Amino acid sequence: MVQAKMKINKAYLLTIIFFFFNSFLLPIGLLYTTILTPVFYFALLFKQYKYILLKYVFCIAPFVLIHLKNGVVLQDYFVSLTLYFTVYIFIFIVYDFLKTRTYLDILFDRITNINFALTILALISLFTPFKTLWALHAVSAGISGLPRLSLFTYEPSYYSTLLVPLIFYYLLSISIHRENQKLPKLLMLGLSLCLSFSLGVIASIAIAISFVLLLNLHRLKIRRETVSLLLYLLLLGVLIALLLFIFYPENALYKRIYNVFTGNDSSGKGRTFEAIEIAYILIQKKSVMWGIGLGQIKTLGYDVITSFYKYDRNLIKVVTIPNAFAETLAIFGFVGAFLRIFLQLFLFFKTKVYKNYFQMLCFSYIFIYQFTGSFITNIAEYLIWLLAFIPYFTQFNKDNLFKTASSLNGQ
């Protein structure tokens, strides 16, 4: 019992660092999970992951050989190659954790409570000169200086992505298992999500829920609470929208939605079709099939991206492609982009994602989101992929729920 409690506390500490402080006081791009890679690597070796390094070399070697042949800036290339290895190790350490632990629901509760406390602290800080828990950069045309909740992470969209699995967990617990005592936790997370003002994340969540609901409507009809909860949330959203329209028509949400539909939302365009357009321009300069290589967006992409957006080069020193799929296309070409989607679909059927509501929601969300934002080394994204492919929350298995509901209805 004592040993089990120590394991939970250790996992609790690491989870808090991952969710809230992974980039705290570190230079942009550096994470504590990155620094801990050697520790994670040797821990995996002790857990019989003997060929983990060999597997990485085997998978990346064809791309490395072709990229080196086509020509790259070596320093940037090998720095990025090392960074990708740290992400690869992180994926395995989380995979091992999820396969061998049984208390993720406890961690979810604790994370949600801490997140809410920090959100309240952030709201209080709005009335002080210290707004370090908020991102204040321009969001869209006509919307500048809008506070967006990011807490101690480096970006609101990254922060809100971390909340996604928790939101799905509580939504399913309430709607399917009737655990109404968890409704406050869902509302806590909903508040933080709204304050992040990450419309890409919110839209992807809404699409994922709608898709899974429609796909399983024939099963979920035996659980009327599921449909009822979603209808209540929809009505609440409509009511809030009407109140905003009547009393505050110039609000930032309406402005950004207007900018999206009129094509003036620079953030939205930059994270979607413009990102793919830039990626295609880049691979034409090196190899359409194999891409420009790791770390080369920083150099080769600088001229292309600054010219594309007509940036002032005296002000812009670093450029990125803020779209995970587009970045994959730029770095690894059509071969890499194809392998990315193929692997996702292969694992979808291999791990039978479609048999579990939680896994389906996670998969649907992150599959959509990769085309609307994120980046290829985003560990929050890989966490959701892992939760989609590992059958952790078996209480949300479709067959078990269907049998239970049928027996209840029979009584």
Give structural notes.
The protein is 69% helix and 1% strand. With 411 residues, it is mainly α. Strands 1-2 form a two-stranded antiparallel sheet. α6 packs across α8 (183-196) and α7 (156-175) runs parallel beside α18.
Main β-sheet, in a few words? 2 strands, antiparallel
Secondary-structure element pattern, one letter each: HHHHHHEEHHHHHHHHHHHHH
User: How much is the average pLDDT?
Assistant: 83
Taken from the alpha-carbon principal axes, the silhouette is: globular
Strand content: under 5%
Tell how many strands the DSSP assignment holds: 2
Count every helix, treating DSSP H or I runs of 4 or more residues as helices. 19
Helix content: 55-70%
Please outline what is shown here:
Residues 187-339 form the O-antigen ligase-related domain. The protein is 69% helix and 1% strand.
What descriptive keywords fit this protein?
411 residues; mainly alpha; two-stranded antiparallel sheet; 2 strands; 69% helix; globular; disordered C terminus
Question: SSE layout and pairings?
Answer:
Elements: H1 2-20, H2 32-35, H3 37-46, H4 52-70, H5 74-100, H6 104-125, E1 134-135, E2 148-149, H7 156-175, H8 183-196, H9 199-215, H10 217-220, H11 224-247, H12 252-262, H13 266-271, H14 273-285, H15 300-309, H16 324-350, H17 357-369, H18 379-389, H19 398-410
Transmembrane segments: 12-43, 49-68, 77-95, 115-136, 157-176, 188-217, 229-248, 329-349, 361-393
Keywords: Ligase, Membrane, Transmembrane, Transmembrane helix
Pfam family, one: Wzy_C
